[in-house]
DNA sequence: AATAATTTTTAGATAACTCTAAAAATTATT
DNA sequence: AATAATTTTTAGAGTTATCTAAAAATTATT
């Protein structure tokens, strides 16, 4: 059994080291977790004894296979709860994080499987990040910035990078929401704005918008 | 802010001492929490310093006003989560407790208010126990055993006392579920069985059944 | 009312996680 | 390659919550 603290360390190592595969430095973890390097060393030793991380003095840490599995499971829980909060409880995209950080540590396999089914097996969270399935596999389709989508392609809005309330208000105003279908009609090399078709309406959006809106191919 | 452990102690005192008003002995708390009396003394001192309990050496503890409020809030969260698990995630009445024990400690006022609304402001949990509202007020209507209901009265099934799978299967078989309307038709003094009307069907149920089924007047 | 039994508290220790300050190792600079 | 700067680890200590064993207070029994 992993404690709450252990889980948070594993999560940090997972996120800092490209899914836990790369070596992560003690200081990087300390910064991410808002703690001291000496505390990290202590905990990393403990995690190494539990076979959750690979650790050699002064060489940094990476996750073992078990460690990755643990991390992916936490990510799965975190993202499913985010979907629940946004889709069912009227949370906005930028309100969910703190609560999901708490909910992700609830231990009950049945709970998370039933939640998954209740939410209709979502593949991505409200920020457009993929939700791993029960076996830890991620959907192949990755989110991309709208600005990278080729002309004449249709895609689905799956998240934002800039989550400032100004930006979210702008999206609201133009009926751009999670799940909206967007077709890229034309690009304007001059100012890098693009014209999109959304809800049957043509709309010109600036470079800032297309760079901060995540979409997924269909 | 209360820690998880503090919250569990407060909950125990609340349940043992008739909503925290009566004095509770150190040993009783120790037994309830599966810990040692000396640990209880230590924690109770800490809670007293935080003004959550009234404590005089060798005299037992009761909850202060703040303590009761804290306890009621935890009860509210616990019971709302139970409703969620049963009504939305296909948990059975007897599977919910352990998970709800974890979920009740999640800290987010918005979460619990939205959950309340999402569940349509339930007044009772799957065991028939009342859910306090935001201000800590309980519904006046209390659950009673079916055996206490007067002939010719209609009531609603709100919970069970015996939650053995045999009993739950029996209820299932006769279409007795949470929310079922039950009218008491006749009582049989001879073996204390009673005849009820449920889903338009007359059914004779034994003393055991009527003593382990909780209902509420309409 | 004195003694026995029980309950509760205190004292001292342990485990998990954290910290500060100093030492050791690594990396960067000249 | 030697020295400086940085990073990482160790050593020792604090906090929270727990425990065992012994002391103190309360309650029950004779």
Automatic annotation (TrEMBL), chains A, B:
Identification of the protein by name: Transcriptional regulator MntR
Domain named HTH dtxR-type: residues: 1-64
Single annotated GO MF: DNA-binding transcription factor activity
Organism lineage: Bacteria, Pseudomonadati, Bacteroidota, Flavobacteriia, Flavobacteriales
InterPro entries: DtxR_MntR_Metal-Reg (IPR050536), Fe-transptr_FeoA-like (IPR007167), Fe_dep_repressor (IPR001367), Fe_dep_repressor_sf (IPR036421), FeoA_core_dom (IPR038157), HTH_DTXR (IPR022687), Iron_dep_repressor (IPR022689), WH-like_DNA-bd_sf (IPR036388)
Family membership: Belongs to the DtxR/MntR family.
Coiled coil: none
Compartmental location: Cytoplasm
The entry's keywords: Activator, Cytoplasm, DNA-binding, Manganese, Repressor, Transcription, Transcription regulation
Quaternary structure and interacting proteins, as annotated: Homodimer.
Membrane spanning residue stretches: none
Function field: In the presence of manganese, represses expression of mntH and mntS. Up-regulates expression of mntP.
Pfam families, A to Z: Fe_dep_repr_C, Fe_dep_repress, FeoA
Organism: Jejuia pallidilutea
Domain of life the protein comes from: Bacteria
Principal location listed in the UniProt entry: cytoplasm
One cellular component term from this protein's GO annotations in UniProt: cytoplasm
Gene3D superfamilies: 2.30.30.90, Iron dependent repressor, metal binding and dimerisation domain, Winged helix-like DNA-binding domain superfamily/Winged helix DNA-binding domain
